[in-house]
Amino acid sequence: MVDAVVLAAGSSTRMGRPKLLLALDGRGLVRRVVDETLASRVRQTLVVTGAHREAVEAELAGLPVRLVYNPDHTRGMSTSLRAGLDALPPDAEAVVVLLADQPLVDRSIVDALIAERERTGATIVRPSYGGQPGNPVLWDRSLYGELRAQDGDRGGRELLRLRAGETAHVEIADRRAGQDVDTPAEYQALVDALAHAASDHGHVDAGASFCPRCGGRLEARIVQDRSRPVCVACDSVFWIDPKVAVAVLIPWHGGVLLGRRAIDPGMGLWSFPSGYVDRGEMLEAAARREVFEETGLDVDITGLVGAYSTAGHPVILVVYAGEPRLGAGAPPDPRPGPEMSELTAFAVDRLPPMAFDHDDRILDDWLALRRRQAVGG
Q1: Among 32, 186, 266, 354, which residue's beta carbon has the most beta carbons within 10 A?
Q2: Residue 214 CA from chain centroid, whole number
Q3: If DSSP codes are grouped into helix, strand and coil, which group holds residue 341?
Q4: 161 and 22 in a common domain
Q5: Are 352 and 255 in contact (CB under 8 A)?
Q6: Which residues contact 99 (CB under 8 A, 6 or more apart)?
Q7: CB-based contacts of 351: which residues, under 8 Å, 6+ apart?
Q8: How far apart are CA 83 and CA 49, in angstroms?
Q9: Is the peptide bond preceding residue 242 cis, with omega within 30 degrees of 0?
Q10: pLDDT per residue as tens digits for the range 214-270
């Protein structure tokens, strides 16, 4: 049996008012977290209150939760953690400890932690948001004693550090899900982000877990013959945006400038300077930026080589021809940026192993463009 403990005893000193009652989609932050926990696979949910006890309990009125008051909440988070552990039933095999100021944590994250414990037998399971470990954390009952021994405002952080080698991680696609709310600026940023997403013409990023209109959970459903994200709460249908990337082919020492990739995909293979376009960025500006970041060269965009896409692949690649700017003298030697391990000019008929399927076609199109430009076409 896995139970949940939601820590909701903080005094909200940095917010200046009870932050757990701040509204997001018409519900207080604590209510959102508890609603999602109740909808997950946990057997029961315990909520530890402290500061603003009456207001928090009123926000949760009518929900099937067990309320646990921590009279020592001013002595730090560890006292609330201890109060929650002491209130667990004897047969609780594990507990998911959630923070009430993380309103985007949903049932799918809690369920993923439980599933990972079942799969691996790990004594600690926590989510990872973009490679950064975060909360909530699932703890095996074998660690309850050590958790109770923690003091101050550290919660379980020291134990997580000591037992890092025993911890299993679950990667969460939506990096926002791990965001907590401590200050007025953080709360307003979260409200603004959700409002902006809600006005974004029904489009969301791949991997999004939450509805940008109401904050509800998204699930895959077949709509217009394709699997699309649909909100389980408001039934809004969303379309996943494609990714747009740019690449630039640069003549260098009689050949074409290539970089050996220092990152995946294609790590160790060669490619043209390339990268993703930022939202709202002009394509040509993105192309020049990527060249500078990866080679240190400032280039002029001299023509469009082509646009390339593959069925079933989310990336649209727009490729340009570029020429190094001469300025007052010859351009400096290119220097590899963080995503390239080295830069070299290769003859077009003696290319090294290339990273991507389109590369041969792109090179042919670039050579054709250069021939047209040479004759003024």
Answers
A1: 32
A2: 19
A3: strand
A4: yes
A5: no
A6: 6, 7, 33, 105, 135, 136, 180
A7: 258, 270, 359, 363
A8: 10
A9: no
A10: 777 788 788 877 778 888 888 888 877 788 999 999 999 999 999 999 988 888 999
When computed from its CA atoms, the radius of gyration of the chain, rounded to whole angstroms, is 26
Q: CATH number, domain at 88?
A: 3.90.550.10
Strands 299-308 and 315-324: antiparallel
Q: Which of 260, 262, 287 is nearest to 346 (CA)?
A: 260
Rounded Cα distance, 320 and 259, in Å: 16
In a domain, 191, yes or no: no
AA letter at 110 = V
What residue numbers bound the domain in which 229 lies? 199-240
282-311 pLDDT, tens digit per residue, is: 999 999 999 999 999 999 999 999 999 987
**Residue 194 falls within a domain, yes or no?**
no
3-state SS assignment for residue 339: coil
Whether 17 and 36 map to the same domain: the answer is yes
Kindly report whether the peptide bond that precedes residue 265 is cis, defined as omega within 30 degrees of 0: yes
DSSP state of 376: T
